[in-house]
Amino acid sequence: MMQAQLHCLCLLILHLATGYSHEGKFSGPLQPMTFSVFEGQQGSQVIFQFKASPPAMTFKLTGETDGIFQIQPDGLLYHNGALDRETRAVHKLQVSALNAQGATVQGPVPITIEVKDINDNRPTFLQLKYEGSVRQNSRPGKPFMYVNATDLDDPATPNGQLVYEIVIQLPKINNVMYFQINNKTGGISLTRHGALELDPTKNSNYNLVVSVKDMGGQNENSFSDSTSVDIMVKENIWKAPELLEIVENSTDPHPLKITQVQWNEPGAKYSLVDKEKLPRFPFTIDQEGNIYVTQPLDREEKDSYVFYAVAKDENGELLSIPLQIGVKVKDINDNPPTCPSAVTVFEVQENENIGSNIGTLTAHDRDEENTASTVLAYKIVDQIPAFPKEGLFLVQAYTGVFQLAKQSLKKQDTPQYNLTVQVSDKDFNTLCQVEIHVIDINDQIPIFEKSDYGNLTLAEDTAVGSTILTIQATDADEPLTGSSKILYRITQGDSEGRLGIDTDPQTNAGYVIIKKPLDFETVAVHNLVFQAENPEPLVHGVNYNSSSSATFKLIVTNVNEAPQFTQNIYQAKVREDVAIGTKVGNVTAKDPENLDISYSLKNNKRGWLKIDPVTGEIFTMAPMDREAESVYRVQVVATEVGGSSLSSVATFHLALSDVNDNPPRLATDHPHLFLCHPLQAPGSVIFEATDDDQQFFRGPRFTFSLGSKVLENDWEVKRINGSHAKLSTKHTNFEERVYSVPIHISDGGEPELKGTVSLPVTFCKCVEGSCFRPAGHQSGMPTVGMAVGILLTTFLVIGIILAVVFIRIKKNEGKDNVEIAQACEAQPLRN
Ligand SMILES: *[C@@H]1O[C@H](CO)[C@@H](O)[C@H](O)[C@H]1NC(C)=O
Ligand SMILES: *[C@@H]1O[C@H](CO)[C@@H](O)[C@H](O)[C@H]1NC(C)=O
Ligand SMILES: *[C@@H]1O[C@H](CO)[C@@H](O)[C@H](O)[C@H]1NC(C)=O
Ligand SMILES: *[C@@H]1O[C@H](CO)[C@@H](O)[C@H](O)[C@H]1NC(C)=O
Ligand SMILES: *[C@@H]1O[C@H](CO)[C@@H](O)[C@H](O)[C@H]1NC(C)=O
Ligand SMILES: *[C@@H]1O[C@H](CO)[C@@H](O)[C@H](O)[C@H]1NC(C)=O
Ligand SMILES: *[C@@H]1O[C@H](CO)[C@@H](O)[C@H](O)[C@H]1NC(C)=O
Ligand SMILES: *[C@@H]1O[C@H](CO)[C@@H](O)[C@H](O)[C@H]1NC(C)=O
Asked: Distance from the CA of 377 to the center of ligand 4, in angstroms?
């Protein structure tokens, strides 16, 4: 029986402990060896045949045989029962060789049997049921609990490699998984959805069925187990506190606890993050999550803060999203009102009425707006001098508006009052200084130093901007006020506004300036009247009189001026082929001094034109070419005859228009026009003509006619529009060939040009609406017809293919040739 089982050696994997190759050999001398044997095999299994060498006769086995391993006296090592790796993974055996007398002659030699794993154990969860809890909004992927299964098989082989999986999640809404499991560790965590959506107020209890499989989950023969996991979702206590209010300028000892944050589990590491990157960040957090302000805040420096509280685990990883903490700094009244400036100045005119508004004092307060800390009250506490009496002014308590309280003021009494004004907020008083200047009223008119500035003679070409005269009036009102400032106007003698007057604000001197060119020819003498006025109105009862005006005579002298053309640019248009000597235009210039004028041309580069020096008429003097110069530009010069010979220049543009010098022709050189032969009814083709002259403004205007009277019996031409015409047959009796039909085309141009074209019309058999005609029909020179023939060959090839199809279809009827012709005729005529 042992011998019979030798074939089972194939189940053994042999390897030699001593290192020399023994593979494939199942017998050999006694020496230290290691064998690997799969567990779980029933019956007797041969491991090795030891060969005895004299004096050794028999073998003996000792060690961890567990009653399973045995050796026969002849050296055959085997086991007679199933091994179990989970009971003993390695059996250490010793084999000794004995002589005939039973004495050991070799050994004991160590023989190691490694039991190889087979997947003979199921994975088992350590618990039938697991319970865990998770906080709302926990970080996805961070395990909050573990399930754990064991498998007795060798974890170094797939047999012991376990894979966890969530099989069922209850409840599961919209097929969204809130939980995930690490398939190696069994760690259960939230998914991203779970972190966002789990809400204990909606549903706090979830149940999972988790499975575990061995064989790495990859083998369909793997064993599995499953367990139930109950998960309770708990409220997240990692929550941002409400907006905090901290009173500024606090005198409490700092640091001062202002709020607290807390991670869901103990052991979190807390820190604060200042995203505003403040130079001075006045908050800290301790490891209990208490948040402190480290120093008094100042609302006027910064009225709110936003920062983040962060919780991390021991590895420095964020436990959850940081919490945003907002702090509003609450105002206290810690700022006194401030005056708008060291001294505020108001002006009051003499004689202003009681109640007149003098001005407004606006003090500021840095404390929070629209609070009691910034409601300011004004009060006058002192008036210097108290003359003619106290309390001349009042201020509206909350607006700061100053008014005259008791009487009109007189500058003679006091030109300036100094007021001390108290401005108060809830807790602070500030004193502001206000000066009130009493200013004169406009009761004095400006008086010219003289009533006549005499006369001045100027050339008409005196430069614009020149100051030609300085005038002066004085005003006795208070200097540097609108009552004494003087504005000068010219009331007579300058209706065209050629002059203007600027006033020096310090001295009230007026400078008469030329604003537009003087012109002897228009106005030779300006009799000017100047009027001096104040910007402020005069008081009632005082009026400007003649002392506020002055006269001046400006005499403009003539200057010889150049002739003036009536236009800067003259334009004309002629046909390019006009005869030499044709008048193409004229120019006209006038001399302001009425001198005679002589005309000439400049830049007459091509010498095409000449000008009559007396009349200004312009003539051609050479053939012109539009293609060389479509617009010919010359300058015309007008020169005074005699005198200073002043001249001026204008431009003459002569546009040359195109001449119709191309006859009409066909738009396509070889129009592919055909009619299907034989004609069933009279047919027609459409063709298009063109012209190389580009002189049409509204498209071509061709007319068409037959080129030969003889053909009028066969053909007819009708115009469709300016470019297209229709050629129709008058009967159906045409041969199967190309007809060349002469057509007259006239372009209706100027002059009218006519062309005669030969229009090729092919009569051919048709297939599928295309011409079907054998090539080489026409012999001799390559002609238009040839080209058509070659073109038609293409159709022929296609036609033959179609014909063959037809022939095959119609074969049985025995009328092949006729059928092709019928197919052709069956096509409807084009047009
Ligand atoms: C699972 O259980 C085994 C045996 O009790 C233990 O050695 C192992 O650490 C456990 N694994 C986890 C993730 O708890
Ligand atoms: C286990 O999870 C890892 C990563 O999550 C994945 O790559 C692997 O395919 C999973 N194994 C099985 C058997 O599902
Ligand atoms: C704090 O208040 C006191 C008066 O109460 C004031 O003098 C001081 O300037 C204030 N400090 C700040 C920073 O506002
Ligand atoms: C008012 O104050 C100014 C300084 O601001 C001073 O020069 C002037 O003398 C004062 N006038 C009176 C009447 O005190
Ligand atoms: C210009 O003024 C002078 C005196 O300054 C006088 O003799 C002369 O007649 C005046 N000319 C005219 C045109 O008024
Ligand atoms: C114009 O009025 C002023 C006073 O306002 C006076 O001095 C002057 O004589 C008057 N001039 C004439 C011409 O009446
Ligand atoms: C000059 O041309 C104008 C039109 O521009 C015409 O009215 C006038 O009669 C022409 N003069 C001569 C002398 O041809
Ligand atoms: C002239 O008639 C032809 C044929 O009807 C057409 O294709 C073409 O557009 C027409 N041209 C104009 C300018 O109407």
From this structure: 25
